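cache lookup: miss for this entity combination. No prior model stored, computing from scratch. Input as submitted by user K.M.:
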Amino acid sequence: MSQSSAMLPFDTPPPGGKAVSALTVSQLTALIRELLEEAFDDVWVCGEISNYKEHMSGHVYFTLKDETAQIRCVMWRDVAKRLRFRVQDGLQVLVRGRISVFPQRGDYQLYIREMQPRGLGPLELAFRQLYEKLQKLGLFAAERKRPLPRVPRRIGIITSPRGAVIRDMLRILRRRWPIAEIWIRSVTVQGETAPEEIAEALSWFGRLSGIVDVVIVARGGGSAEDLWAFNEERVAFAIRACSENGVPVISAVGHEVDWTIADYVADKRAATPSEAAEMVVPDQQEMRQLLQTWRRRLQQALCNRVQNARRHLESFSRHPVFRRPLQRIKEKVQLVDDLGSQLHQAMQHFLSARKQQLALLTGRLDALSPLQVLQRGYSLTWKEGEKWLLRSSDEVAVGDCLITQLARGRLRSRVESVQSPGDAHP
Amino acid sequence: MTANEFDQALTQLSFEQALTELEKQVDALEHGQLSLEDALACFERGVKLLRRCYQLLERAEHRVQELVGLSERGEAVVRPFSLPEEEVPSSRVANTASATQSKPI
């Protein structure tokens, strides 16, 4: 690289004179770039945006101008993506960046690292800064929002005891849902100590989880400065902590148009304190109507069930079995009677048959009785000391003693002689 | 749960709990395939829950307390709240909260 004195034209001898090494375009451009970058490393510039163009790549190109001058600007994609507002031609902005040179075109450009809409005060800037920080931490995430209780038993209110706000809220709460008990924590809602007082009250209510069901942080309308406590980081973290302890928080700060950090962090944002009082409880008249409706539905449902059962029963009762139940029973009784008399007859028959049989058998038995035979003149004879009746003369010898049984009485006799069975009858 | 146990539990129910339970009974009776006996029991529970809800509605007294702080054991210390003198438009709010001394709960 040449010495800087070599660049000065009045030191340069005319062409054809003493030989001096000339700069290439690139070298010169590099020198210019070095100078500019060093001198304008971090500058704030205000102006109007024109020729705004966003490339497919996400990088943004535009010209910043005023009445008499303009400067080309580049904003890389990562910077452009971070902007919370929409950039368009005609917008007055305040940008911060560095100057550099684009060698291929010989242009100097402003490379932007930050952009704000013009007219923003330090509060807005702080708001924006905190907003971005908390959003990065995920404090606004929808999935972290805790649902409000449907019917709170006890409601905490953090607000100033003075002014219309608390009065309006109590009036609405008494009208809509006097069942809920209200616990008020009086705090200063603006000024030096306000953030600390509000954060402390939130931590108390957070520790009363299970006793207090929901908390409203409220403040009436006011200037941005008045509402500032609700844009403080410690209040935002206190709201989140209270909710995470199980007590959901409703923020109700200022009017409809006022959005504070507290509104973003809270589980629910009410546009005004009165709206918070409206949303936190059901309306007792509506509740009575709902209960009436349910009472009717209960009755109707039971009626339907009973009707249903009755129809079921009726469809059964149309069956012949159930239509004349007594007849069926009578039929059964008759059957039993029939069977009974049949049984009786059968028994009779059986018995008389048996009787006859018995008489017959008795007769036969009589006929077979040896006594009967003896009556007719027969006798029974056996050897004395033996048990069996004599049937042949072979069974006795002369001199044996015989016993003879007659129909009446016995004889004892001795054998005189024996005739063998083959011999003629005596 | 027997009918007796149910009656016991009933007296402890908050409005929201009673309401949620009532909703269940209505739903069961309307859409459940209940036996006649169960349907009657369901209806009976529903009526009791309704009664509990009405009871709570009628008992309303709109108590307003001021949270003074937390005790060492972490219990709330409260006292009756009254609006600053110059701002009381009607005496009703002040009246409901005038009786008791500050007390831990």
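stored under new cache key. The CA atoms of residues 75 and 104 of chain B lie 6 Å apart.
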